[in-house]
């Protein structure tokens, strides 16, 4: 019997162990998509206890922040919400988390939590209700007293070279500017442009947001569709000047309607009047924005990330209480592969298709995406169009394996830009380690089955590339 999560955790073969220990684990991290706070990075936040890092809770402004993966796990164990996102004593919340985690056999959360305990706190015993008091005291002592157990220290410990945060077009990026001016911060921290609130013309708060966008570009209003497009591109150029490497679009599904700017303007005027829009009108407006921004991304060398097929905020009670990203989202089923093809083809026809990363939350789309990306590759960079890493409900051990197998079957796995955390926690960098172990085990099995030669130079290039070098090239780090 193997020891619990030992140094060879997941690594089943000699080849896998060699690839991981000699190559993968030594590489820096390019965490090109996450939801960390640049303010907390600059201010080098220190956490009072491990619950602040793992569960979070209500912020002073009334909003909530924390790891909704863990919130969801605790709800599944029947734990009262006051222990999850509420104001119960932090130690009591920690014990309740331990109680739920003990039942999470087969869930990646079990592995992630224990990798975090091992790599950041030196704790190698399983977290249970019985061990919770010891682990609580040990971790909190480190968080309070160890000079390296701060936001910046955790980034250094994890050997992070690049962090791509997620930022609204109206953000001032003041914290990114301060980080860039601070020579003691070695990691590159770049903003990522996420214009969802401007794109979602059919959702609540859109009009108020457009007024904010207007103010951000020094105008009282945005009277026309062209003004909207100009404002979005102006803000993108502002982001680009401050180190933006990627955009991010969180879409219900990827739309495509062949609308002109004039047709989109008619929709825009209708929305400003508060009139109900048809689905086609919404999609036409969104398509014009996506095409305009896609061309700007291409011109500026910014990668376009498209995340889609999430069914969001399903529990109305929790959504009203906590807000979005509360752990009540699910996988949606959308048939928008044809729309993605039309969007990329329209950009490609004009020679302005940007580097693009496609993520579907529905694993049934793996083969479709694997086939689709091969239609739009070109000589500008290897793997210009990427099948994004297994995302959210798919970043399980089996989910990562299936995404990589699909990419290997239909494309070139060796050009894959690898893992990201998509997280709000400074401890979640161990997800890269989890991914690298799964990657090396997968490749190691192929080699030992005689499906790929045991040619070390080629294997080193592939493993180090997927672990870091491909992302460094892709985002021009």
List the helices and strands and how they pair.
Elements: H1 14-22, E1 29-31, H2 38-42, H3 50-54, E2 57-58, E3 64-65, H4 68-76, H5 81-84, H6 90-101, H7 108-121, H8 132-145, H9 151-157, E4 160-164, H10 174-180, E5 188-190, E6 192-193, H11 196-199, H12 206-216, H13 225-240, E7 246-247, E8 249-250, H14 261-272, H15 279-300, E9 304-308, E10 310-311, H16 316-322, E11 330-331, H17 337-349, E12 356-360, H18 366-373, E13 385-387, H19 397-410, H20 430-448, H21 456-474
Parallel strand pairs: 1-4, 4-5, 6-7, 8-9, 9-12, 12-13
Antiparallel strand pairs: 2-3, 10-11
Q: From the helix content, strand content and strand pairing, which structural class follows?
A: alpha/beta
Rg for CA atoms: 23 Å
Distance between the first and last residues' Cα: 43 Å
How is the largest sheet built, in terms of strand order?
Answer: 8-9-12-13
Low-confidence stretches: none
Strand content: 5-15%
Output mean pLDDT: 97
Can you describe this structure?
The chain is α/β, with parallel strands linked by helices and 477 residues long. It has helices at residues 14-22, 38-42, 50-54, 68-76, 81-84, 90-101, 108-121, 132-145, 151-157, 174-180, 196-199, 206-216, 225-240, 261-272, 279-300, 316-322, 337-349, 366-373, 397-410, 430-448, 456-474; strands at residues 29-31, 57-58, 64-65, 160-164, 188-190, 192-193, 246-247, 249-250, 304-308, 310-311, 330-331, 356-360, 385-387. The strands form five sheets. Strands 8-9-12-13 form a four-stranded parallel beta sheet, covered by helices on one side. It has a three-stranded parallel beta sheet with strand order 1-4-5. It has a two-stranded antiparallel ribbon with strand order 2-3. The longest helix is centred in the middle third of the chain and has 22 residues, at 279-300. The relative contact order is 0.14. The model has no long low-confidence stretch (mean pLDDT 97).
């Amino acid at each position: 019997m193997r020891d619990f999560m030992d140094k060879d955790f997941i690594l089943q073969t000699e080849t896998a162990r060699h690839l991981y220990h000699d190559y993968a684990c030594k590489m820096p991290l390019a965490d090109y998509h996450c939801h960390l706070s640049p303010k907390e990075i600059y201010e080098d936040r220190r956490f009072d206890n491990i619950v602040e890092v793992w569960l979070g809770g209500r912020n002073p402004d009334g909003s909530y922040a924390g790891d909704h993966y863990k919130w969801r796990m605790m709800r599944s164990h029947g734990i009262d919400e006051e222990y999850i996102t509420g104001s119960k004593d932090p130690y009591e919340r920690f014990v309740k988390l331990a109680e739920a985690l003990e039942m999470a056999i087969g869930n990646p959360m079990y592995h992630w939590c224990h990798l975090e305990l091992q790599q950041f706190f030196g704790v190698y015993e399983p977290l249970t209700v019985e061990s919770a008091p010891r682990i609580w005291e040990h971790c909190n002592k480190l968080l309070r007293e160890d000079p390296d157990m701060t936001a910046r220290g955790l980034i250094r410990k994890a050997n992070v070279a690049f962090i791509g945060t997620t930022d609204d077009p109206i953000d001032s990026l003041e914290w990114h500017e301060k980080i860039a001016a601070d020579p003691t911060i070695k990691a590159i921290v770049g903003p990522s442009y996420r214009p969802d609130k401007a794109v979602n013309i059919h959702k609540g708060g859109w009009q108020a947001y457009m007024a904010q966008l207007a103010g951000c570009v020094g105008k009282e209003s945005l009277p026309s569709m062209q003004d909207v497009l100009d404002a979005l591109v102006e803000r993108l150029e502002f982001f680009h000047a401050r180190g933006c490497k990627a955009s991010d679009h969180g879409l219900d599904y990827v739309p495509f309607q062949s609308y002109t700017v004039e047709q989109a303007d008619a929709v825009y005027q209708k929305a400003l009047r508060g009139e109900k829009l048809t689905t086609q009108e919404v999609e036409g407006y969104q398509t014009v924005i996506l095409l305009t921004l896609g061309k700007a991304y291409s011109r500026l060398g910014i990668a376009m990330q498209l995340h889609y097929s999430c069914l969001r905020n399903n529990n109305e009670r929790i959504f009203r209480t906590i807000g979005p990203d509360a752990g009540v989202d699910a996988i949606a089923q959308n048939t928008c592969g044809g729309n993605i093809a039309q969007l990329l083809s329209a950009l490609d026809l004009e020679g302005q298709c940007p580097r693009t990363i496609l993520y579907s939350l529905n694993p049934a789309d793996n083969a479709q995406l694997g086939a689709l990306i091969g239609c739009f590759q070109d000589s500008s960079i290897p793997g210009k169009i990427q099948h994004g890493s297994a995302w959210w409900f798919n970043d399980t051990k089996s989910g990562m394996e299936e995404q990589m197998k699909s990419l290997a079957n239909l494309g070139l796995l060796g050009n894959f830009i690898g893992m990201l955390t998509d997280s709000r926690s400074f401890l979640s960098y161990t997800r890269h380690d989890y991914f690298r172990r799964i990657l090396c085990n997968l490749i190691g099995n192929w080699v030992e089955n005689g499906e790929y030669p045991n040619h070390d130079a080629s294997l080193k290039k592939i493993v180090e590339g997927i672990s870091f070098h491909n992302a460094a090239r892709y985002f021009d780090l």
